[in-house]
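Hi V.,

Quick status before I head out on leave. The structure for the redesign project is tokenized and pasted below; the design run finished overnight.
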């Protein structure tokens, strides 16, 4: 073997080891990215109270549990849902 000939086995080993290390680094970085992304999503979306949704829920709950007018000119009123269910059950029991 001459001095200027390439060392093929050593080059192959270096190439294979480099490819394996590159693969491990890419997989580790991808796992880190997904973990950080889920942490940010949790911090920004899941843990933040959504005031508009909470207000809408409170308004709808108030509507479902109170008396009020639907159309005052036509005499249409709203009754609490529990009372309405009780009336429907009582009405269905009468022959």
């Amino acid at each position: 073997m001459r001095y200027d000939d390439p060392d093929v086995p050593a080059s192959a080993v270096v190439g294979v080891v480099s490819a394996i290390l590159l693969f491990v680094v890419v997989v580790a970085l991808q796992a880190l990215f997904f973990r950080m992304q889920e942490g940010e999503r949790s911090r920004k979306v899941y843990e933040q109270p959504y005031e508009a949704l909470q207000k809408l829920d409170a308004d709808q709950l108030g509507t479902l549990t109170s008396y009020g007018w639907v159309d005052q000119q036509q005499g249409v009123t709203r009754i609490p849902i529990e009372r309405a269910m009780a009336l429907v059950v009582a009405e269905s029991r009468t022959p």
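Above is the designed sequence. Residues 7 and 53 are 68 Å apart (CA to CA).

G. will cover questions while I'm gone.

Best,
W.
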